[in-house]
Specification:
α1 crosses α5, α4 packs antiparallel against α6 and α5 runs antiparallel to α6. This protein is an all-alpha fold. The longest helix has 27 residues. Helix content is 82%, strand content 0%.
Length: 118
Amino acid sequence: MNIINWLDLMFVVLFGTVAQLSLKYGLYISKPTEEASASIQKLLFSRYFIIWFICYVFMTLLWLYILRTVPLSQAFPVLGLMYALVPIASHYLLKEKVVFSQWLGISIIIGGVILVVH
C-alpha cells in the first residue's frame, strides 16, 4: 500500500470521526424541552447535520475508491481507528469523560490496527 492509499484511508477515518462528532454536538445543543418533531426539524436544518451529511458523502465516495485500489483485508481494519478517535475527540472537544478502561481499549485498538495492516 502506497502513501496515497494511506492518506486516503486516513481521510476516510477523519471524515467519519468529524461526522460522528458533529452529529453528537448537533443533538447536544438542540433543546430537549422542545416537541420531538420541532427538535428533529431543527437538527435536520442545522449546520452540524449538514457537516455530518457532507462528511459521510465524502467518506463513502473515498471508501469506494479505496476498495478499488486497496485489498479489503488491509483497508477495513484501518476503519477501526474511528473507534479510537471518536472517544478521544469527544473527550477533548465535547468534554465527555473517558475512563481508564476506555483509554486501555483505545490503546489496544490502535495497536491492533498497526499489527493488522503492517
